[in-house]
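Question: does this match?
>
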Amino acid sequence: MSRAKRPKKRAADEEPEYEVELLVAHRPHPDEARTRQYFIKWRNYPSEENTWEPEENLNCLHMVAAYSEALGAAFREPSAELTESQMEQVVALVEHKTKVQRHAAALRKWEAELNARRGKEAAICVENKIDLAGPPADFTYISECVPGDSVTILKDPLVGCTCAARSPDGCSSSSDCCASHAGGDFAYKDRRLVLDAGQGIFECNSRCMCATQRSQMRDICPNRVVQLGRQVPVTIFRTATRGWGLKCTQPVQRGTFITEYVGEVVTAAEAEERSPEYQFELDFTEEKQFQYVIDARKMGSVSHFINHSCDPNLVVHGVFVDNPDISMPRIALFAKKAIRAGTELTFDYFLSQAEAPAPNGVMTPTAKDSAVSRFIKTGPLSPVHPLSPTSMASPSRRELVPCRCGAKKCRGFIY
């Protein structure tokens, strides 16, 4: 709101402020020590109430800037007055400036809310240098999956490792750790992923001695990465053609854990009744029909904003920690290669079972031939109204959607 003192209307015992609606003209100030006066149209007052006010009484620099822009070279003249069309231009400029200020305030508020909810995870920034799109409506930030109706997310593992007691090096690739129990390989070296695509990750759980024997080992165990949360600072930013996206704010090494794809875990039947946007089918087992879907449309983390690329820099792996239900893995995103600071983070929504992790760490022919897990985007194909971020549908609801990732290896269609 633009305000200025209005000496002409002051009462004897008070100094009210009035809102400036428009600067109409300017002229030299009678006092040579001052620069100029502006003819002010006051909001909610008729034009007959306009007054000349010295520049130092004004607290509306953006309106002065709009007035200057509308007048052009005439602004440098000692005296000038806006034409009717110039007045309309000033009003439009001021309205736009007000929208920009409100938009920036809304993004700052959203950024503060996101960081208040992220817990111990790394910082989140919000950036929009493209348009005036604000925070997504009806979206709640969460840092871990929540169960939907008729869904239970178990947190009672069947067995844990005893590496902390039996091995001098604790949990490692050479010890009989959780991955070995599950028939898989130890996933990490220096807390970075070393598994090939298609292998499941089996982290230490709450029954492991590294969690129960000495509590401080829980945070230093090399087989606890995804469960400790996102450690990479990120920025949610507005892209030119694909809505919101996500980028890293510092360099990332290959194999680094980026974030977990979280949302509401619902049954496959429930998912069919919902919008397919932001749904991730958990069809990583050998069963013909998957049982659960992560729906991140209304609640999710920074992963909600990750866009598709046919040549991505992230890779998807299924992770098993405390939940013994192999049909409900956690979905983790890791750096597929070294990533420079400021680079957009992407993964391939066309995730086939040949690339997806299996609970036993090895892809079988049956699993490879099972239903494809993939994401599609829906929404109008317009730069003004960008495609809504990540969505995935079951086979019965998939559509042919053009891809706009811009990669040299672009397939032309997301699906």
User: Anything to note?
Assistant: Residues 7-12, 352-396 have pLDDT under 50 and may be disordered. The helical segments are 61-71, 84-117, 163-166, 178-181, 209-212, 217-220, 268-272, 365-368.
